[in-house]
Amino acid sequence: MAEKKISEEEIRGGIVLLQQYQNRAEAYQQQLGLIELSIGECENALNTLNQLEKVKADKTALVPIGAGAYVHATIAQVDKILMNLGAGVSAEKDSNAARETLTKRKDELSKMHGRLSEDLRGMHNEVQKLQLKIAQYR
To answer: Is 105 strand, coil or helix?
Structure first.
């Protein structure tokens, strides 16, 4: 009879742990979604920089403003880019430095995405093991 009580405690502990893994997995999936959005923003900015190189200063161009919308704008200067550095700080960079910064950001985000994805796969494996263990006690 004492053995059955220990098994029930193990089941309860396993269920609690399972819920913790599931909550953490959901948080990781949300983070992965945000990282994917940030990677997409970097790619869009890099593509826009590449397109701006084809535009001469004081020419009119269609500038993307998001959600598939564009505005006609006169491009006064194409060789200087104002970039957000974080914490509400922005700096002006030439297009090559801006491209390097965006590429580095994208690479760092991609690495972070890979690590989180790997951690999430590990969690899923642990969840499966726990589910099998819990199923054995039923």
So the answer is: helix
Give the chain's domain count.
Answer: 1
H/E element, 92: strand 89-94
Q: How far apart are CA 46 and CA 87, in angstroms?
A: 22
Residue type present at position 28: Y
Please report, in tens digits, the pLDDT of each residue of the chain (138 residues total). 444 545 778 888 888 999 999 999 999 999 999 999 999 999 999 998 888 888 777 888 887 788 989 999 888 887 889 999 889 999 999 999 999 999 999 999 999 999 999 999 999 999 998 888 777 776
As given in the structure block, the two tokens for residue 134 are: 């819990």
d(CA 63, CA 78): 12
Please enumerate in sequence order all residues whose Cβ is within 8 A of that of 15, keeping only pairs 6 or more positions apart, or say none: 134
87, amino acid identity: A
CA-nearest of 112, 128, 91, 94 to 32 is: 112
CATH number of 101's domain: 1.10.287.370
**20: domain range?**
2-136
Read off the pTM. 0.78
